[in-house]
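thought: fold this chain, then report.
action: predict
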Amino acid sequence: MSQHVALVTGGIGGLGTEICRHLARSGKRVVAADLGTRSERVAAFLDETSEHSGAIVFEPLDVSDHAGCTASLAGIVERHGPISILVNAAGITRDTSLRKMSERQWSDVLTVNLDGVFNTCRALIDGMTERGFGRIVNISSVNGQTGQFGQTNYSAAKAGMHGFTMALAREVARKGVTVNSVSPGYCETALVMAVPEPVREQIISDIPVGRLGKPSEIARVVDFLCAEDSAFITGANIPVNGGYFMDF
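observation:
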């Protein structure tokens, strides 16, 4: 089989960058897709991943715009080849309690975090099923499992993401396409490290392993699910949270 092309949305974020690295190390050609409005952020990403300069490229993509996303993905396929691996890691937060939440704060989060998954999957799923191979991994969150104060929008989107994952997994299971989600706990990302230290220490005290996760630990699981020989895992949600939330 020819070298797989992997598309990672939110590809230049903290988790996205590590996911791109791991997929490149596994022999994939990786397209890191993200908003291209901040050229300095893109340049920093390309410098940070320079050891994989032949395997990782950047492409601008707005997952929240259905028509624009569809057109952009068609262009990416034309330039880089058919996409057989899709990792949906694009996401935003607009935290506040529901009593204070505006309609815009609600819709912005749902549009990026959940509609974005529909937009990318809808554009790429036919190609995967026609070729008889595909791997889709949606990055959910522990807060989609537990809920979190001030995150009715985010928690709803992330819980909805896994419902979407299970339904799509059933639709394409016999076509050689797997669809799974990964639910990270609190990790050493810029977003978490920006939390005031006393709050961060309280979070860590509630994590049984006693520390924050590393982006590489999330990326390792994503890479595993994207492998050709992970074909019997589909419709699953893999928690990677240091024991912060346990279920059966």
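thought: worth noting. The first helix runs from residue 14 to 25.
final: tokens above.
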